[in-house]
Write a structure and sequence with these properties.
By secondary structure, this protein is of the alpha/beta class. The protein has one domain: P-loop containing nucleotide triphosphate hydrolases (Rossmann fold), CATH 3.40.50. It has seven helices and nine strands. A five-stranded parallel sheet has the order 2-7-1-8-9. Helix 1 packs across helix 7. It is globular and about 40 Å long. Adenosine-5'-diphosphate binds next to helix 1 and helix 5.
């Protein structure tokens, strides 16, 4: 299952709650060249790597997909996902370009878009999270239009208004589809 949606929409929160309910599922840990945010540990939120190392992994065919946005590279380690698929469901939390690339190489992937109730709510959540400055928030809001514009290509679109309801919906898709 591939989960996408604009920054701040609640993907991380939903995935965390979903994993607590379904211990047999696992989250794919991506590689990124962006610096860790406060509290993020290597190998937990991401594998934090240098651009040099990331490019070497691209050359080795080490990514199922990768993309560059917000000036940083993000990629899904191929081996990690293939190994985990042998033992249970795998959840990828990645942006739209990467998600659509996963669907190309793995047509059995189920794409789920998490959408905000409205723009003001998204802005408030991003600001409330307090991990980005105003300039970064404004660029991420611009990117929102692009991401939500890809919704028709997704298998499901879920509005994250009430959190529990959104998690219930994602869980039921997981039960039905995978
Ligand atoms: P993302 O992973 O999509 O960037 P996060 O999961 O970090 O987003 O959520 C951004 C902020 O919004 C967090 O502070 C989170 O607690 C809050 N949040 C998530 N879902 C909801 C919701 N349904 N209602 C209110 N706040 C929410
Ligand atoms: P953040 O910097 O806020 O952690 O993530 C920024 C964006 O990168 C989010 O939309 C997130 O879903 C996306 N992302 C995280 N990992 C990957 C990945 O492996 N591949 C792609 N294509 N996008 C990713």
């Amino acid at each position: 299952m591939v989960i996408s949606g604009p920054s701040g929409v609640g993907k991380g929160t939903i995935v965390k709650m979903l994993l607590a309910r379904r211990p047999q599922a696992s989250l794919s840990i991506s590689c990124t060249t962006r610096p860790p945010r406060e509290g993020e540990k290597d190998g937990e939120s991401y594998f934090f790597v240098s651009e040099e190392k990331f490019k070497a992994m691209i050359a080795d065919g080490g990514f199922l997909e990768y993309s560059q946005h917000f000036e940083n590279f993000y990629g899904t380690p191929r081996q990690f996902v293939e190994n985990r698929l042998n033992t249970g469901d795998v959840i990828l939390e990645i942006e739209v370009d990467g998600a659509l690339n996963v669907k190309k190489v793995m047509p059995q992937a189920v794409l789920v878009m998490i959408a905000p109730p409205d723009r003001q709510t998204l802005y408030a959540r991003l600001k409330g999270r307090g991990t980005e400055d105003e300039d970064v928030i404004s660029r991420r809001m611009d990117r929102m239009e692009y991401e939500l514009g890809k919704s028709p290509l997704y298998d499901y679109v879920i509005i994250n208004d009430d959190l529990e309801t959104a998690v219930d919906k994602v869980e039921s898709i997981l039960e039905k589809e995978i």
